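Journal club side-thread
Mid-discussion, someone asked how the predicted structure for our own chain would compare to the paper's figures. Pasting it here so we can look after the session.
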Amino acid sequence: MTTICGLHFSAKPLWNFCSEATSVPDVIHCHDWQTGLVPVMLFEIYKYNWMENQRVCYTIHNFKHQGMGGGDILQATGLNRDDYYFEYDRLRDNFNPFAINFMKGGIVYSNFVTTVSPHHAWEAHMGEFGYGLGHTLHLYQEKFRGVLNGIDYDVWNPESDRYIPQHYTKEDLAGKAKTKKALRDRLLLRDTDKPIITFIGRLDDQKGVHLVHHAIYYSLSKGAQFVLLGSATEAGINAHFQHERQFLNDNPDCHLELGFNEELSHLIYAGGDMIVVPSNYEPCGLTQMIGLRYGTVPVVRGVGGLVNTVFDRDYDTRHLPEERNGYVFYQTDYSALESALDRAIGLWYDYHDEFEKLMIQGMNCDNSWKYPAKDYVEIYDLIRHK
């Protein structure tokens, strides 16, 4: 049996983590820049202090946030030797010779490196989304791969969700229709025969905020209703959407809820017909997985984990027709988004039986932790026996 110790961030010495565990771990699983120096300290310091057999799996959720520091960080961690760690093949940032890069250290010193979807692994290695670490990933490509995230099927389950008024299954969708009405009642939307298009998430550049804004007005112009639940990360974006909320306040087909509300998010996932995820980049994305779980058809941009989880109903060539579950567009312009939304809204209005079939195919997908957990166990066993 492999014992795992998962680390995020703390000022405690590394050996304290292990002493507090029920047993000494075989594998330490670290995440993101905050723990990037843990494998460095393990290899350079703690392996000489009774931790010579521990191995490290290092998972990167977002390459954009890498963690930078100077010689003072080395002194604080006990690594000390500036001339040694500022070498390019160790911790020195690939573009700033006067900084150490925590995430680079995690990549160099770990026994295995993962990111949160197979397609994002390719984007980080070969494209722009490695944010300067592509060459480092290339040097260590034999120990780098993408493992798709999952969602908790006990929390996100239309058959038992405590936040929705009516439960339902893929065999009986009547409860989804009743939940849709409850969503309209909650948000004072017009009770009419229209699809509800939704967005749930942060309002920032990563999430394609310009396309989110366009999706609102385009959906309304095509005879759909629109519900948004999101919080802005920048003052300017927040002010913009506050203005839009006031402008659309009296529109009976639109509701913008600015902030986070867990209960409302469950109601929107269950009561919506479609969910739009127009991200500029998306390492994995959970929104589209939750949408699929609730029979809410995703309309996504073809990046990162969105490519690994949403398969275009009309154009996907890698999956059988009965395995397709949504709509995908690839460019970042308005026309690309409009094309995907047109197809989704058109199917809802003109071929509703086919739309319902697409909903059920999405609900058939398994995006639980069943398969990712198996992948990680294989990685743990691989590095434990090296």
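Post-session note: The chain has a mean pLDDT of 94.
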